[in-house]
Write a structure and sequence with these properties.
The protein has eight helices and 13 strands. Helix 1 packs across helix 8. The protein has helices at 13-24, 77-86, 128-143, 162-174, 210-222, 257-265, 284-287, 318-334; strands at 4-9, 29-36, 40-44, 47-53, 64-67, 90-93, 122-124, 146-155, 229-236, 243-251, 270-272, 293-300, 307-314. The protein has two domains: 4-125 and 321-334, Rossmann fold; 130-316, Dihydrodipicolinate Reductase, domain 2. The chain is globular and about 60 Å long. It has 339 residues and is of the alpha/beta class.
Length: 339
């Protein structure tokens, strides 16, 4: 079996998880190198990595470059992504910079692997909240076209990065002891609170924050449905790992809860936990560190025909970022798309 040279760009929460996922899934790597802003040694799950400074030379001879990216910031891919492509490397970018670029496929392997066929060496990983939603809704959309999606998300602090995880940990110690919360990552204390703001205000969608706009635009691109009606309200909650979503989904024709459970039970990357009488439904604590998308509370909306309510939970750092990026590389190898 051929093996591939891999460069991981960035060693924050997502970069570390990419390295873990590469090992766990036994990705056929001949070598794995890590580059970041500065040189150092990082020990991740007992494995020592010599982190090199990021530069164009880092991609010489590499087959894949996985850019870890940071949501809401300009990622390293803006400086180095297309340079890596010019050197013959396939770039898979977790950042936001090129997701809507018409040259760049936006891919969730379980949903739209065919988009990889026209790649130009650069593939974008969707936003974490978008990934889990389309994994759950893509199989239903293929059966009966979706007409409208109303999404409300409950997103963990790890989506902001390691500093936000540390902030929640600190507030758990300080606030009960009577010390000030001193919020740094968010406009308010996150402990014991929910904050309906993720990202900055959008210029093109008045009143919407950028995370909400990502869900609208990215969902349309992934499902190849440019006129799909989508709206979202994205909320930060005091959870460490795992995003939850309440989805109200209107179909163009009848879709019963029973049929939806049947379709999703057979869908790749989906697990159905839907026994509400037994209090069995997905919660973030149970899905953390797992790669599937979990759905439950599938029920008929009594206020609107052909409409279901669905509860959807996934680990935002694994399937919402690292795992999906590695799966894209695996799918490209499977499809024979690696030179």
């Amino acid at each position: 079996m051929r093996k591939y040279s891999v460069v991981v760009v960035g060693v924050g929460l997502v970069g570390k998880r990419i390295l873990q996922v590469l090992r766990e899934r036994k990705f056929p790597a001949s070598s794995v190198r890590v580059v970041a802003r500065r040189a150092r040694v990082e020990v991740i799950d007992g494995v020592e990595y010599n982190v090199e400074p990021a530069s164009p030379d880092a991609f010489d001879g590499a087959d894949f470059a996985l850019f870890a990216g940071t949501e809401g910031e300009k990622g390293a891919s803006t400086q180095l992504g297309w340079t890596a492509v010019e050197k013959g490397c396939i770039v898979i970018d977790n950042g936001n910079d090129f997701r809507l670029d018409p040259r760049v496929p936006l891919v969730v392997p379980e949903v739209n692997p065919g988009a990889l066929l026209d790649h130009q060496g650069f593939i974008a990983n969707p936003n974490c909240s978008t990934i889990q939603m389309v994994v759950a809704l893509g199989p239903l959309h293929r059966e009966v076209a979706i007409r409208r999606i109303v999404a409300t998300t409950f997103q963990s602090v790890s989506g902001t990065g390691s500093s936000a995880v540390a902030e929640l940990e600190r507030q758990l110690r300080d606030v009960p002891a009577g010390r000030p919360a001193n919020p740094e990552n968010y406009p308010y204390q996150i402990l014991g609170n929910v904050i309906p703001q993720i990202g900055s205000l959008s210029k093109d969608y008045p009143g919407y924050f950028t995370e909400e706009v990502k869900m609208i635009q990215e969902t349309r691109k992934i499902l190849d449905a440019p006129d799909l009606a989508v709206t979202a309200t994205c909320v930060r909650v005091p959870v460490f790992f795992g995003h939850s979503e309440a989805l109200n989904v209107e179909f163009s024709d009848e879709m019963t809860p029973e049929r939806a459970r049947e379709i999703l039970s057979a869908a790749p990357g989906v697990q159905v936990l839907d026994e509400p009488a037994e209090s069995r439904y997905p919660v973030p604590l149970d899905v953390a560190h797992k790669d599937d998308v979990f759905v439950g509370r599938i029920r008929q909306d009594p206020s609107r025909p052909n409409t279901l309510d669905i509860w959807c939970v996934a680990d935002n750092i694994r399937k919402g970022a690292a795992t999906n990026a590695v799966q894209i590389a695996e799918k490209m190898i499977e499809m024979g798309l690696v030179p």
